[in-house]
Each structure stands twice: as C-alpha cells, then as structure tokens.
Amino acid sequence: MREDIVKVVEILKKEVPEHPYKSKNPFHILIATIISQRTKDEVTYTVANRLFAKYPRPKDLKNADEEEIASLIYPAGFYRQKAKKIKEVARIIDEEYGGKVPDSIELLLKLPGVGRKTANIVLSRGYDKKVIAVDTHVHRIANRLGWVQTKTPEETEKALMKILPEKYWIEINTLLVMFGRTICRPVAPKCNICPIKEYCEFYKKEKM
Question: Which CATH class name applies to 26-127?
C-alpha cells in the first residue's frame, strides 16, 4: 500500500496542473480560504485579489467598511456573512496577535469562521508546517483510491498521517484538489483519462 501511494503521488506531481493561487502570505491564505467556502474557485481568487489590492494587511482590513468588503468579495457565496467574519478576523489578528496570523492550530481554530481544514491550509501553505489539510476533494479521492475507509475529513486526516510519507503532507492537498477539479470529479469522474486508474479501488470496482 505505502509503495503504491508513493507511486500515485509522484504520478500526480507530473500530471496535474499547478494550483492557481500562489500566495505564501498566511493572512491572504487565511482570508482567501474563508472566502472559498461554498464558492467556485475562479470566483474566490478573483475577489480575494481584488480585496487584497485595496486592503492587504489585517490593520487595513479591520478598519474597512463592512459593506465595502462585501461588495469587493461579491459574488462569493454568503458574501455579507463572510464580510463580517473577515473584518472580525482581521481585528483579532491585528489587536491580539500583533498583525501576525497565529502559526498553531489551537489558536487558528479560535478565529471565527476557521475550521480544521482552513487552519491546516494556513499552516501548510503559509508556514510550511507538515500537516495534512483535508477538504472534500482529499476526503473523496483518498476513499476512492482505497487509501482510507473513512466517513469524515477529520478521520481522513488521521488515517492519512499513518500511511502517507511525511514529505508529502504539505503538497497532498493541492495535488488532490487539482486532480479532483480536473479528473476525479465528484460526479462523472474522467476515469478513461485518469493517469492513476490502475491504482484506484473505485475504478477496479466500478469500471473494470
């Protein structure tokens, strides 16, 4: 199993497109991930860049008008509720953490609108910490491949930490996210062009 996992990851590193959001700024990653909830990726990156162009730092964003934040991140889903959360997150980071996004999961989880997936994305992409960020793509694909048999993202995170070599922990999220967007889609996955189908339990059961 472990050898097959390594083979799959190495194939995906060569085959899947790069993630379009390149920022390594922990604050930008945090806010963009909050915006991304129930929002299409292309919308998320467009509105996040528009927001940061005007309000790049926590102290800028905490003083911004909530209605203006909402208009800048429109048409993200639930943009008004997110505008309120974003303003409050910026205030907390500026006033309680000196403008620096916390680099521990315990403190990140205390921020409004921040769950485990968001926290781990910030830690891995923004701070290069070896954690596994599990979103719907990672959870779905890890189960389809047969790497895990889990019912929740939290269970998937723990299971992957036991079988995935640590050197892949940071990048596995972006690899499986991009793979899930392009080939291993939730509905009608493109198994016919999948570069790792020979390693996939779903393909073996459903397609062969």
Answer: mainly alpha
Q: Rounded to whole angstroms, how far apart are CA atoms 92 and 90? A: 6
Q: Enumerate long-range contacts of 81-87, CB under 8 Å, 24 or more apart.
A: 82/34, 82/35, 82/37, 82/113, 85/34, 85/112, 85/113, 86/31, 86/34, 86/35, 86/51, 86/61, 86/113, 87/61, 87/62
pTM of whole model > 0.85? yes
Q: H or E element: which one contains 84?
A: helix 79-96
193-203 residue pLDDT tens:
999 999 999 99
> 58-113 pLDDT, tens per residue?
999 999 999 999 999 999 999 999 999 999 999 999 999 999 999 999 999 999 98
Measured distance CA(94)–CA(176) in Å, rounded: 33
Evaluate whether the domain defined by 2-16+132-206 bears CATH number 3.40.50.1820: no
The residue ranges of every structural domain in the chain are 2-16+132-206, 26-127
